[in-house]
């Protein structure tokens, strides 16, 4: 009987061992295993204790990161992600492929991220209890690990080697790379630096370990001590040393979006308050630590100021008369600044000061006056078109231009120059003949309000009138259905369009597949442009449907308004608002007179605003695919409007890229069209960059008949001039431009970023707008052609 009990005990022990072995082995992820991004799915690869999980996290509706997080904590704190700069839509998949690589592909099959593949050596993947995701061989040798590619976080047992980098997140809710870096440099110095976002160029070191040539590794040990060591393994200096925390707390070291490196702990005991708390941080005062004297706007961006709250965190604010731009982009004025032209003295009467005590923007003074009174200081700034801000302290007057930087709380009085009543005006424009307009410029705010009201009224009127007409003609047989997505655009009969266009006898221009005539609507006498496709081919029909579908989804002051269309029998006709001053190409490339510099600058920014709307603000993002001067029209005030959406490509709500045949016009077509690469909104950015150079230089992108062959290709010549510090050569004979070299440099540098052959280096259009507006520093651009695919 005793032997039977002993045998039973042995069987139970063996069975228990087998079960435990199976549980342990089940934590190993086999080749060809996968996880699909889905809002309703809880599929993850977890560590043996369940403390960490690897899988997809939805960070915004329909957008997923492939990530690692603390799975047992309430807030599921993220500690690593593979695709922080490019969230993927639902339906995307991560798979441990047969050749041993982790591969993340979106729902269309495009590869977004991949680990290093080691064919024939990787046997399995495993999520470890340290928070480290590893790919291992049959002998459990680690062949790849997430610890070697950190994002913004280090965990206990993790090591930061030389040239490894932590990047802060963009904001508390946007996990893409932000403005700050924490890195152990190749020379052994451990530093916190700001970078010239969106490029990776270092701008300012605001904390340093001062361990040049001696620092070797930063080790976060399990006890909670974080030490910088020498190559022989001895401690060079502790970063944070708070005694043993092993087993008592969850821990993480994070470079947060405000630029502060913080060591967090979270009690494991059920008796303690379940929350992360800060044990140590550097620097002690981020508002004073960052001093971007040469370039950059400080911790909060240009025209903002930084303060420290009661919990020791930084907070960013805008001065009176300014509004926040979002992220770390600082603040922008709610008014147009003092004009520096022949009307500056008259314009000075429109300004006053908002006073703020205890705030200063140190550095970057362009003038200092000592032993003067405050009244004198005020009047001096009001009379100076360059003065945007005065700091008055102890009878010293510090005058500062736009943009002001490194704002922080400290003693002194700030006098912020603002336009009275926040009146918004525009820069002086010119007529087509080059003469300055003598009419007083309208305020931007009033223009926007009136424009919106007028547009809504116009749309409502046309819809009502032509809805009645369309109802009466419902019996007309049509050979084509209404293009997808079109709802509020009027549908005309061919007879109505023919009458409006006076039998198509007033031609305005023609293209490869269409002729544009002038017309007049019979019901209200409105002048319109009638575009008739003259090739009834499948391609032309597709172009017609694309144009109607894309432009009918838009509503923006810098996009031409589509009033209606005709799709009857073999007739494909589009009816647009009429643009008085024709195309930008005609305006820009006329031999004489040269268009005003200020008008060209305004046109460039307005076009950027229109493209940004297409990419980011439409209900369905639109890639125009054919941005060029011929497709930008000018209204009676020379305000530009983007036209000709015949080649446009609509993106699905969860798409960022697409595959399509080559579209566009030679000279403006982005290089990726020819490289079998996925097409993104960056193709429009490239085309805009070429057109921006044309606007600045008042010449075509390619002119074969120039005397110097090096000047034939404008993009190459512009970069050569920039490199040589000779931008004035681009605007020879243009005295207006030569007197505004600062703006010329900003616009040319921005254009060079836009025409980078590597599409990942090109900024998005919202960043382009920040650069052109001066609310973001434009970093030094690399050679546009230095791209190896």
Automatic annotation (TrEMBL):
SUPFAM superfamilies per UniProt: alpha-D-mannose-specific plant lectins, Protein kinase-like (PK-like)
Single GO term (MF): ATP binding
What Enzyme Commission number(s) does the record list for this chain?
2.7.11.1
Its keywords, alphabetically, are: ATP-binding, Disulfide bond, EGF-like domain, Glycoprotein, Kinase, Lectin, Membrane, Nucleotide-binding, Receptor, Serine/threonine-protein kinase, Signal, Transferase, Transmembrane, Transmembrane helix
> What name has this protein been given in UniProt?
Receptor-like serine/threonine-protein kinase
Membrane topology value: Single-pass type I membrane protein
What the entry lists under PROSITE patterns is as follows: BULB_LECTIN (PS50927), PROTEIN_KINASE_DOM (PS50011), PROTEIN_KINASE_ST (PS00108)
The domain of life for this entry's organism is Eukaryota
Places the protein is found: Membrane
């Amino acid at each position: 009987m005793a032997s039977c009990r002993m045998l039973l005990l042995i069987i139970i022990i063996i069975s228990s061992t087998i079960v435990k072995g199976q549980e342990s082995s089940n934590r190993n992820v086999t080749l060809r295993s996968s996880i699909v991004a889905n809002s309703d799915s809880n599929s993850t690869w977890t560590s043996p204790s369940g403390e960490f999980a690897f899988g997809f996290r939805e960070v915004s509706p329909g957008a997923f990161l492939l990530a690692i997080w603390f799975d047992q904590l309430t807030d599921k704190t993220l500690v690593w992600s593979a695709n922080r700069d490019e969230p993927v839509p639902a339906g995307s998949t991560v798979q441990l492929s047969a050749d041993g690589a982790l591969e993340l592909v979106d729902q269309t099959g495009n590869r977004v991220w991949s680990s290093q593949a080691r064919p024939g050596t990787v046997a399995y993947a495993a999520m470890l209890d340290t928070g480290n995701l590893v790919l291992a061989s049959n002998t459990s040798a680690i062949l790849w690990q997430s610890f070697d590619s950190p994002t913004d976080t280090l965990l206990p047992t993790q090591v930061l080697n030389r040239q490894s980098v932590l990047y802060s997140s963009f904001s508390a809710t946007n996990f893409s790379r932000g403005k700050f870096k924490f890195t152990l440099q190749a020379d052994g110095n451990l530093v916190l630096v700001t970078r010239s976002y969106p490029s990776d160029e270092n701008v300012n070191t605001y904390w340093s370990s001062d361990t040049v040539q001696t620092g070797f590794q930063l080790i976060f040990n399990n006890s909670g001590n974080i030490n910088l060591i020498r190559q022989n393994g001895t401690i060079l200096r502790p970063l944070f040393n708070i005694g043993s925390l092993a087993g008592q707390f969850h821990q993480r070291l994070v470079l947060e979006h405000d630029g502060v490196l913080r060591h967090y702990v979270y009690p494991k005991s059920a008796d303690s308050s379940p929350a992360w708390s800060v044990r140590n941080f550097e620097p002690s005062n981020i508002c004073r630590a960052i001093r971007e004297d040469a370039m950059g706007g400080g911790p909060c961006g240009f025209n903002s100021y930084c303060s420290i709250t009661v919990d020791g965190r930084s907070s960013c604010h805008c001065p009176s008369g300014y509004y926040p731009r979002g992220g770390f982009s600082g603040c922008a004025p709610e008014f147009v600044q003092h004009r520096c032209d022949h009307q500056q003295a008259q314009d000075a009467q429109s300004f006053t000061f908002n006073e703020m005590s205890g705030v200063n923007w140190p550095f970057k003074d362009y003038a200092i006056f000592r032993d003067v009174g405050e009244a004198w200081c005020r009047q001096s700034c009001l009379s100076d078109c360059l003065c945007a801000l005065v700091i008055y302290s102890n009878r010293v007057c510090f005058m500062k231009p736009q943009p002001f930087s490194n704002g922080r709380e400290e003693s002194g009085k700030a006098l912020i120059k603002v336009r009275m009543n926040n009146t918004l005006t525009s820069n002086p424009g010119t007529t087509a003949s080059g003469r300055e307009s003598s009419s007083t410029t309208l305020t931007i705010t009033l223009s926007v309000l009136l424009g919106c009201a007028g547009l809504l009224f116009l749309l409502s009127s046309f819809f009502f009138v032509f809805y009645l007409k369309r109802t009466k003609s419902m019996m007309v047989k049509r050979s084509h259905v209404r293009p997808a997505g079109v709802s509020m655009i009027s549908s005309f009969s061919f007879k109505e369009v023919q009458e409006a266009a006076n039998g198509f006898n007033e031609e305005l221009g023609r293209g490869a597949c269409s002729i544009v005539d002038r017309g007049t609507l019979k019901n209200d006498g409105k002048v319109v442009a009638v575009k008739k496709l003259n090739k009834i081919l499948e391609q032309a029909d597709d172009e017609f449907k694309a144009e109607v579908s894309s432009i009918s989804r838009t509503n923006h002051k810098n996009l031409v308004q589509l009033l209606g269309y005709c799709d009857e029998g073999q007739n494909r006709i589009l009816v647009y608002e009429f643009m008085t001053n024709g195309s930008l190409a005609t305006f820009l490339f006329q031999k004489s007179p040269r268009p005003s510099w200020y008008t060209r600058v305004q046109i460039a920014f307005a076009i950027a605003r229109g493209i940004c709307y297409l990419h980011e603000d439409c209900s369905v993002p639109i890639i125009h695919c054919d941005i060029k001067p011929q497709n930008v029209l000018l209204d009676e005030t020379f305000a530009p409007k983007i036209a000709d959406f015949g080649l446009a490509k609509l993106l699905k709500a969860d798409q960022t890229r697409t595959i399509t045949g080559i579209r566009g016009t030679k000279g403006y077509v982005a290089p990726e069209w020819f490289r079998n690469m996925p097409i993104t909104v960056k193709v429009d950015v490239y085309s805009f960059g070429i057109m921006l150079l044309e606007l600045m230089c008042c010449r075509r992108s390619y002119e074969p008949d120039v005397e110097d062959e090096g000047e034939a290709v404008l993009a190459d010549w512009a970069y050569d001039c920039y490199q040589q510090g000779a931008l004035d050569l681009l605007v020879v004979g243009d005295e207006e431009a030569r007197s505004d070299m600062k703006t010329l440099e900003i616009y040319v540098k921005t254009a060079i970023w836009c025409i980078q052959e590597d599409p990942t280096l090109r900024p998005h259009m919202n960043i382009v707008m920040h650069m052109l507006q001066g609310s973001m520093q434009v970093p030094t651009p690399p050679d546009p052609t230095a791209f190896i695919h």
